[in-house]
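Tutorial sheet, problem 5. The two components below are modelled jointly, 651 residues in total.
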Amino acid sequence: MSNGRFGIHGGQYIPETLMNAVIELEAAYEHFKNDPDFDRELTYLFNEYAGRPSRLYYAEKMTQDLGGAKIYLKREDLNHTGAHKINNVLGQALLAKKMGKTRLIAETGAGQHGVATATAAALMGMRCVVFMGEEDTKRQALNVYRMRLLGAEVVPVTTGTATLKDAVSEAMREWTRRIDDTHYCLGSVMGPHPFPTIVRDFQAVISREIKQQLQEKEGRLPDAVIACVGGGSNAIGSFYHFIPEPSVRLIGCEAAGRGVDTFETAATIATGRLGIFHGMKSYFCQDEYGQIAPVYSISAGLDYPGIGPEHAWLHDTGRAEYVPITDDEAVDAFEYLARTEGIIPAIESAHAVAYAQKLAPTMGKDRIVVITISGRGDKDCAAIARYRGEDIHE
Amino acid sequence: MSNIANAFARGKAFIPFITCGDPDLETTAACVRACVANGASLIELGIPFSDPTAEGPVIQAANLRALTGGITTDRIFGLVRDLRRDVTVPMVFMTYANVVFSYGAERFISACRDIGVDGLILPDLPFEEKGEFLPLCQQYGVDLISLVAPTSAGRIAMIAREAEGFLYIVSSLGVTGTRSEITTDLASIVKVVRANTAIPCAIGFGISTPEQAVKMADLSDGAIVGSAIIKLLAQYGKDAPERVGAYVRTMTEALRP
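Model answer (structure tokens):
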């Protein structure tokens, strides 16, 4: 079998036109990941530009309110551009620049990855084109403006369901049109090898920091790490350094939309089955003939019919658990964290908060739960207000 | 020897592509018969996929029309069974890996043999991943057709050496769709192909005019045309077969020595 497998998942199911591009990318990555200069430059960008390390905050009021395990929040929302996406983007943009590429293309769902890519492109003097489902450009109008402000071109994608999966397809098509000067800055731990590995490695800084910060604060490992999962980049970043620590439960929260027993869901592990799509073998929401299902979630960032191949493998082996969280539960959690801790999480991250609200009370006070707040919720305020029947304009 | 070789036995091959079920299976059947009656050498039948990442807007739209019309893999197998009552030219399926995988690879590929489909083109199954389906294709005598692209530098010989049926040469960068000009150095690609395999090769992507078809077929063993035909289906729907036949005639006449 080929490269880049996580158990049976992963691989490189892409058009021949792109094969040399991913081979070249892998070779460059293998070289630069061991290059001390690259590491120094990236660390500098992480610390001085993105504001790392991000805080590990003891959520005392939430802990008291839930009455169980001690809750820490990994504050990726405090990063520059407001989400964990910047970790991966700075890594890939730097890599692309070293490879001599002058143009970045990206897909985006909620707009966070698009904003991060536009930001890195502005910083490094590269051109940038972001593909975004037309539906999402409406849900996340503010982020469209931010990308344009940063000098990127935003292309609304009208094909298919006009959401994240269609944005990925269109970015892949654009990459086959123009490879020489262009790097496809994929935003999650998905797609063909080597993307799931590259993105994971750049996001692994999250769990590296959690481990160290919790050691300093508590002198021990957490009992559970909870993160939301669409493609799964913040989750794999949060899990990675804990995978070899069997005492740490790893819990990924999928977007159940209106419920896993409805068609309006994006919970891949709960409702999908094994398939081959967007360059990888993994689990996908699909019909009996393999047609990819139109998925739904209130969260544009989790509104994707697949899951990264390493998550599929962690699910197969039982090392990580994946739980569905509905729109209603996520919106409640969005409001709960705002009122309880004065922190407005991204609606994506609110899925993780929602599961922590269920889990923490069942655990003893001597237990520790870490929730990754993958992004900030400012972008979601208008949509949540509408969800609650209040029509406000951004 | 593969039945596909017959498509290349009488001069340059003309290979039309049709998306099954666009707008319905009756029209697809009529189009295939019109292609055959007008000299097509091999028929490429597209099984629609919800997210065809190698296709341009024209074929994407055809996929959508077909799926909206309720087309399924099983109904397409029925279509081919019906066509095989009178159509003898080789036929191959063009679809995406998930359509085969999800159906059950063995169930799909054995069905291909049973209904008379000679080959399988999967644009998202590169050389590195062909182990996914190749053993089953060989077991059931269905040719797994390989593609080479303008960006295949250093890979052409490797791909050609193991190619089956015919080798599909992608004319230019990007997705399917008509192009006014094809600038790739295809002669150099064909040279490497010829040095590494005896099977025929045909060029596709971007071809719409008889002049382009002649130019491409001169460089290789045949020309593949998709989007130009699908445009006729988009425009004329159920009335397309006659126009598709007339179009195919202009192409096959241009290719005749």
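Marking note: The domain at 12-255 of chain B is CATH 3.20.20.70 (TIM Barrel). Full credit if you identified this.
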